[in-house]
Specification:
Layout: H1 18-38, H2 43-66, H3 72-95, H4 101-115, H5 118-122, H6 133-152, H7 157-194, H8 197-200
Amino acid sequence: MNSTPVRAPEAKAEILTIPNLLSFARLLGVPLFLWLLLGPHADGWALAVLMISGFTDWADGVLARKLNQMSKLGALLDPLADRLYILAALFGLVIRDVIPWWLAAILIGRDLVLLSTVPALRRRGMLAPPVHYLGKAATFNLLYAFPALLLGSHSGTLSEIVKPIAWAFTIWGTALYLWAGGLYLLQIRRIIRRRPVAAAA
């Protein structure tokens, strides 16, 4: 039996890869989603944009591994696109009176706290801590909760069925989002303690 440890593929500095192009396409979909939500109130098309975004989020990760095209840029673009879709959805749903403002404030406040740690990480040669599976699970829950909340805001039998499911995803996703934020802060604390600024230089 071969006892040699298998090393994970290293992230490369490539830019024009298929996964990165999918991530760029996801970023372009953020203003389109927000315009559909707040402009013509084309909720069906807005939901379609979110669904396509969710599919490309899954696809770029799969392709990056299968094609060995994992890159440093992709590691930044993927969570950035997730954060922007969450912020856009929160903003749009508050304006449409689908969710209360304080719920949006809690979720945005969590991201602002983590954003405040970026200067300390950059001084140690990092932009962000490694993505935690709990953070991905929280994002998954919220990105499913928001379109369901939008669907539940309409009238009809389907909306009445979807609404409690949507709020269950919202509550669970918010709890996981805050929990993941706490774990990220612990992770960042360990990085700051173990990797002083002088070492990064």
